[in-house]
Amino acid sequence: MHGHEVKPGSPCPFVRAEGCSIYERRPTHPCKSFVCGWLLPDSPLPEEFRPDKLGVIFVRIAWRGRPAWILVSAGRDPDESLLEWMRRYSMSTGEPFFYGQGSEQLGFGPVEFQREMLLKAQRGEFLWSSGRSSAK
Question: pTM for this one?
């Protein structure tokens, strides 16, 4: 897109603190066709997690056929209060999540998820598609 590789789960190079810097000329795919997890009809995310207010976009993906989440920076990395909310949510639903902090790629979820992510990190594989590798 406009000379940049853009894909779900990776920060968009056109996101600024005030929103999308190419909003009027954004392409249909992946931009116009993307539905943030906050907007999904069955979204568990509260109003205050609206991406333009929070600075984080929620991408719903599947892990082993079950819902999982990627928290993608849209101006800032997830802070501790957001991560604590997500940890509680993950523990109550079993839905794991991925997030980035600085240059690290991290994940949180049930034991089988943790084991799988640790094996991926040990093999040098990326936990998700942003191209950074680490495990927690």
Answer: 0.76
